[in-house]
Amino acid sequence: MTDSKTANSPADANQGLTHFDQGGQAHMVDVGAKQDTHRVAVASGIISMKPETLAVIRSGTAKKGDVLGIARIAAIMASKRTSDLIPLCHPLALTHVSVEFAVDEAQSCVSCTVRVETNGKTGVEMEALTAVQVGLLTIYDMSKAIDRGMVMSDIRVQEKHGGKSGSWSQA
């Protein structure tokens, strides 16, 4: 059994950042020596549905209320609770979260784009991805009485900025 001194020791620096200690056991990566930097991640996803479901969402007449408004709040709340949901994910103090929904009548879908920012030692990609998924799940939950066949897809990180690895953008 590996003790906690070994699991979070400077040996992490020799191995690179990894979720495994020298004994092969899972542990939270020690980011203590990293510098705080401004970090940004943008993630997106889509939920496709029947045209009549989209019409109800767009009109704001769903029986459960303002679907997109409630989904926006759920996404923001989820971004702030990511470390409670994803094992070994660091708890972060987020400085900004924005959630945008776009209705596409031609494709009968709603897209969700989330931008998350922090000033910290580790990135916010997981927070952005979690927010997108919970936002889309909330749309599903609030609309499933109309359409149980909705499909969530294309959930991905679009871009990230900050930290040692710099900027990255989905081509």
UniProtKB/TrEMBL annotation:
Which InterPro entries does this entry report, sorted A to Z? MoaC, MoaC_bact/euk, MoaC_sf, MoCo_biosynth_MoaA/MoaC, Mopterin_CF_biosynth-C_dom
EC number of this enzyme: 4.6.1.17
Q: Where does substrate bind?
A: L88, C89, H90, M126, E127
Pathway-wise, it operates in: Cofactor biosynthesis; molybdopterin biosynthesis
Active site location: D141
**Molybdopterin cofactor biosynthesis C (MoaC) domain: from which residue to which, for each copy?**
28-163
Q: Where is this region: Disordered?
A: 1-20
Highest rank taxon of the organism = Bacteria
Q: Which UniProt keywords apply?
A: Lyase, Molybdenum cofactor biosynthesis
What reactions does this protein catalyze?
(8S)-3',8-cyclo-7,8-dihydroguanosine 5'-triphosphate = cyclic pyranopterin phosphate + diphosphate
Pfam family for this entry, one: MoaC
Q: Where is the composition biased (Polar residues)?
A: 1-17
Task: Report the family membership.
Answer: Belongs to the MoaC family.
Q: What is annotated about its quaternary structure and interactions?
A: Homohexamer; trimer of dimers.
Q: What does this gene product do?
A: Catalyzes the conversion of (8S)-3',8-cyclo-7,8-dihydroguanosine 5'-triphosphate to cyclic pyranopterin monophosphate (cPMP).
Q: Which HAMAP family match?
A: MoaC_B
Which protein is depicted? Cyclic pyranopterin monophosphate synthase
Give the source species: Herbaspirillum hiltneri N3
Q: Which gene encodes it?
A: moaC
